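User: Hey, my collaborator sent me this sequence without any context and asked if I could get a structure. I don't really work with proteins. Can you help?
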Amino acid sequence: MNVKNEKVIILGKSGSGKDYLMRKLVERGLKGCLKWTTRPQRKHEKQGVTYNFVSDNQFTESINENKFLAYQTFNVTPEDREPDTWYYGVTLEEFNESQVFIMTPGEFNNLTSEMRKGCFVVYLDIDRSVRESRLFRREDKNDSIKRRLDADDVDFSQFSDYDLKITDPEFTAEDVYDLMD
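Assistant: No problem. I've predicted the 3D structure and written it out in structure-token form, which is a compact way to encode the shape of the chain:
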């Protein structure tokens, strides 16, 4: 097996296949980043495996202690609850110890130019109808699908700093892995 030196940063809108790509690259031997979040855990997710699920207080304490490379807040309106604010972030420790990351454009913009040099950035630009269908199949009631899709359109409207853009919804992780240094 070839040793890969680059970090892989995966960006894409909701339902584009970010988790799939990360899982497949980890199966190939790369170390995945465990992102922190305060959002509710989905039925297929596991604490310490999919995310580090923490309380709002834990997250804000870590912000105050400068533990994050990047973090963002999202205002969401779940189908049957009051609006809520969720935090997502990548700690400096995880960035230094990991090789595969899922980031938003806002998080990615926090990388220094020196950090960016050692990264292979993959943008999953999958058609909205495909992504919408995938999100409906998830039966995720934590947030409105339309809100997520619309917010993604805004978040990615100016995004252009990538090394590989994938538009085929049937992409393979091997294609990404083979292109990495």
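In plain terms: The radius of gyration is 16 Å. You can pass these tokens on to your collaborator as they are.
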